[in-house]
Amino acid sequence: MIKKEMIAMLLAGGQGSRLGVLTSKLAKPAVSFGGKYKIIDFPLSNCINSGIDTVGVLTQYQPLRLNQHIGIGIPWDLDRNIGGVSILPPYEKSENTDWYSGTANAIYQNMEFMEYYHPDYVAILGGDHIYKMDYELMLDFHRRNDAKITLATYEVPWEEASRFGLVITDENNQVLDFEEKPENPRSNKASMGIYIFNWDVLKEALVTLKDQPGCDFGMHVIPYCHQKGEKIMAYTYQGYWKDVGTLSAYWEANMELIDIIPEFNLYEEFWRIYTKSDMIPPQYFSDSSKVSGCIIGDGCEVYGVVYNSVIGSGVIIEEGAVVTNSIIMSNSKIEAGARVEKAIIAEDVVIGAGTEIGFMEEAENSYKPNVYAGGLATIGEGSVIPPNVKIGKNVAIIGNTSIADYPDGVLASGQTIIR
Measured between alpha carbons, how far is 70 from 73 in angstroms, rounded to an integer? Predict the structure, then answer.
């Protein structure tokens, strides 16, 4: 047995179904962000910047690319002989073998991993938020208040509070009650899904609730501990925090990076965001290119016009192509004369010459209106869009499509092609 003061358990097994075709082939934490990073880079970087050198990453849905990205943790200085980063997928046991069925169930199934380090404290983290947070400051708050559990909260606008799980606290920030997406909220302190537990408290709760179907921290573990009378504190986080769980939120968070003074700064020396970087050549801009207000990844070749966009590595934008207000992920190609407006284009996509995306009147998506919204056009990984077609807003496309898939050369707003 090895003694650690605090270890982190990072929940990274979710599909992220509200990101639609972006997560059809990979887990949400492995989705690109900011042209260079993956979403999981942010909590992993927070861990090493906070002095946490032992992290268990719980994977389940489409884990291959996430596993390849994390590797042995070298970019985050988590390649340690004792501790470091460990990938924890579900595995076959002698009895009760099962997939992870809830956030707390996933942690329970890795009890042996936690026992090995016999920590004083365990931090439970989500793998799908964009933020910078010093977990050491949260731990100091936890110890100072002699808490058994501390949960991180974020004050959301009152008009949006009914969309969140909320906590009600006293004047000392001790938790008195919980509300799950209430119609008439009594608080605007939203739970961030970030918890610090005393190890003995977490262990007892997980063992007691092990037979609870879909055992979840917010729904089961925290209320159970509250009913037992355990002291639960709310740590108010005041920095930037963005849940990029919807296409609109994901697009907005990327667009915020290219503000003149971005609210979320990727360039701070004292709190770096680390990632796995490929060895690829620098960007090339031809004399015909025009670029303004963009993030452009390494290895890009730009011959056309790019405004107010986030462009991943290895992207080619041919002469006469115009890209505005869009996210283009790695190794995609925008062919000559194509026009792209307010789109999210995943990796390894080809947009045919002369094709126009995002230039029609908006209409509700007929397939998944709650997913494909916000006036965005979303093109999934590996898709091929033929030349000279017109594609509207609130559309989704994934697959190798041909001109026959576009009646009269058009995919109207609100339509979907899934191949």
Answer: 5
Long-range contacts of 184-189 (CB under 8 A, 24+ apart): 185/158, 185/161, 187/161, 188/155, 188/156, 188/157, 188/158, 188/161, 189/153, 189/154, 189/155, 189/234, 189/236
At 257-305, the pLDDT tens digits run 998 788 888 888 889 999 998 888 999 999 999 999 999 999 999 999 9
Residue 244, classified by CB atoms within 10 Å of its CB into exposed (0-12), middle (13-18) or buried (19+), is buried
Say how many C-beta atoms besides its own lie within 10 A of residue 63's C-beta.
21
pLDDT at 382: 97
Predicted TM-score (pTM) of this structure? 0.93
User: In the chain, what's the furthest Cα-to-Cα distance?
Assistant: 69
- pLDDT tier at 94 (50, 70, 90 boundaries)? very low
Does the pLDDT value for residue 373 go beyond 90? yes
Report helix, strand and coil shares of the chain as percent, to nearest 5: 25, 30, 50
3-class DSSP state of 72: coil
Q: Can you tell me the distance from the alpha carbon of 390 to that of 365, in angstroms, rounded to the nearest whole number?
A: 16
Residues near 412 by beta carbon (within 8 Å), at least 6 away in sequence: 360, 363, 392
| Residue 89: predicted pLDDT | 82
Of the candidates 397, 398, 388, 395, the one whose C-alpha atom is nearest the C-alpha of residue 412 is 395
pLDDT, the chain, mean? 92
